[in-house]
Amino acid sequence: MFVSDFRKEFYEVVQSQRVFLFVASDVDALCACKILQALFQCDHVQYTLVPVSGWQELETAFLEHKEQFRYFILINCGANVDLLDILQPDEDTVFFVCDTHRPVNVVNVYNDTQIKLLIKQDDDLEVPAYDDIFRDEEDSGSDSDGSEPSEKRTRLEEEIVERTMRRRQRQEWEARSGSGSEPLAAALEKSSRLSPSPMSDRTAPSSPRRDILFDYEQYEYHGTSSAMVMFELAWMLSKDLNDMLWWAIVGLTDQWVQDKITQMKYVTDVGVLQRHVSRHNHRNEDEENTLSVDCTRISFEYDLRLALYQHWSLHDSLCNTSYTAARFKLWSVHGQKRLQEFLADMGLPLKQVKQKFQAMDISLKENLREMIEESANKFGMKDMRVQTFSIHFGFKHKFLASDVVFATMSLMESPEKDGSGTDHFIQALDSLSRSNLDKLYYGLELAKKQLRATQQTIASCLCTNLVISQGPFLYCSLMEGTPDVMLFSRPVSLTLLSKHLLKSFVCSTKNRRCKLLPLVMAAPLSMEHGTVTVVGIPPETDSSDRKNFFGQAFEKAAESTSSRMLHNHFDLSVIELKAEDRSKFLDALVSLLS
Q1: Would you state the pLDDT for residue 170?
Q2: Which phi and psi angles does 26 have, rounded to 5°?
Q3: Which helix (H) or strand (E) holds 378?
Q4: Are strands 221-222 and 101-102 parallel, antiparallel or unpaired?
Q5: How many Å is the Cα radius of gyration of the chain?
Q6: How far apart are CA 477 and CA 519, in angstroms?
Q7: Is 478 in contact with 485 (CB distance < 8 Å)?
Q8: CB environment 427-447: b (16+ within 10 A), e (fewer)
Q9: For 178, left (φ over 0), alpha (ψ -120 to 50), or beta?
Q10: pTM, entire model
């Protein structure tokens, strides 16, 4: 059920309890976690935190700790699947779910006792009515009975109990047969429970019900940033601090950087946060002149759409920002020539452009934004500047929100083998605190490597014609041995690469039909197990609503061909697939989407 009063129905409930936090491995989830940690520290709430990168880790951690905890908080995971069916909790276990994934599973919405959704209801949720999903066909003509609500609730409970019994029978059968000892079999069995459809086989004959569910579940998209939701809770509690506001800003910026929300949604949410920035950072001129060396200031900026440019050289930033690289077509000789013309149009000496931004002449830096915007307009880049925020730590350290997103993401997705996923998560979490600026700067260096590798891989894919049309979609596969291929074995990195590749392809192709196609991309995951990661990206259009239909399509294609697929990631449009099943899986996908 949706929680209407976050203070009473959530915070005051967990305030006196020991709680367990599951936090997904994305920047918005980290920021929401930091805000919640700060609130818990204020009120001395005891909690245990476990990072989870997928459903297998979440299920394993829950089984390990379910006896010690009654209250579980899930951040950016759990809303879009039937949690009770997956985790099989005890009847007194309660889950508080703060998740941006949409659509929200209908069983989660209509479960009043164990699932509490910390989700803003002013998002366009479009949840089907209870009667349309759970009412039996034979009941439709006999609803005059006064006990109707309790009967509906009983039917929902029966659905849940029925699924629970089937699951337990399956587990007992596995235990007896020993099939659970094989990792792939177990993984695929878990994957089958992550099907987007929340209803049991009992609903299959009901065509209207199935159609309503299909319409509701066919597109995957994202709602309001979880960090923003947690900041609003802090504001309601009158415990909001400047640090919490900054984490909310970084959480929103993460959604924008990763193209998870529309430009309109981003601008609307920036407006909401801007009011809080004015409230927290309002100072008169005398106060500005007497700021302490360790103060924190957040400012609204109308800044350049260039990645890390204040911590890099302007030339490197222009070459490795997806927006400019795609529009200049920097993978071609003609594109490099256009970049030189662009710099000449601004009148910037090459020596200045290629040295670190901080070392540029002050006279050039003062008017740089205006100069770049003016020249960008001449070269067809109308939205070179974007609404964002910056933070000053004292007088020396200044970061844009996007800088922090890139740094934190790179720390979390680090391909280094000397640390586990949990180590990377903790390092990324620490980098969000001003007391760990050394980790943030290290993250910036990793981010530069990641951005360079991304643009080099895009150039390689386009120059060697690896992006091919399969009819209803474009397809690209990274081969084993491709430079930096291990950087893109992680779902977040591969998804970001795919989105940037699609933007660049749309700018490069002359085929009008291909410009409107979605992209499916595959990258090697494990040589040992013979698996690949596959992601689906919706079409790149100006009017794109960022809704992704590949979650349902992947499920159907794998089912029809018996392909060994694992839906382990929290985004349903990201799957793991046996490499030897890839050909028949793609054929089924082509047939399905044609």
Answers
A1: 46
A2: -140, 160
A3: helix 368-378
A4: antiparallel
A5: 25
A6: 11
A7: yes
A8: bbbbbbeeeeeebbebbbebb
A9: left
A10: 0.89
Determine contact, residues 47/11, Cβ cutoff 8 Å.
Answer: no
Up-side HSE of residue 178: CA atoms within 13 Å toward CB? 0
pLDDT in tens, 229-288: 999 999 999 999 999 999 999 999 999 999 999 999 999 999 999 999 999 887 654 455
* Residue appearing with tokens 């794998």: 558
* Phi and psi based region of residue 516 (left: phi greater than 0; alpha: psi -120 to 50; beta: remaining): alpha
Residue pair 84/111 in contact by the 8 Å Cβ criterion: yes
Tell me if 130 sits within 8 A of 143, measured CB to CB.
no
556 Cβ contact partners less than 8 Å away, ≥ 6 residues apart: 588, 592
Residue with more model confidence, 428 or 365: 428
Q: How confident is the model at residue 366 (pLDDT cuts 50, 70, 90)?
A: confident
How many residues are recorded in the chain? 594
Q: How many C-beta neighbours within 10 Å does residue 90 have?
A: 9
- Average pLDDT over every residue of 162-169: 52
Residue bearing tokens 């209908």: 106
Closest CA to 389 of 242, 532, 273, 547: 273
Taken in order 223, 225, 229, 235, the sign of the CA dihedral is: negative
**Cα separations in angstroms, 286 against 282, 290, 398:** 12, 7, 21
C-alpha 479/C-alpha 88 separation (Å) is 39
Contact present, 84 and 115 (Cβ < 8 Å): yes
List of E strands, 70-208: 71-75, 94-98, 101-102, 115-117
Q: Which two tokens stand for residue 578?
A: 């046996």
User: Distance (Å, rounded) from C-alpha 178 to C-alpha 170?
Assistant: 12
Q: Does pLDDT of 446 surpass 90?
A: yes
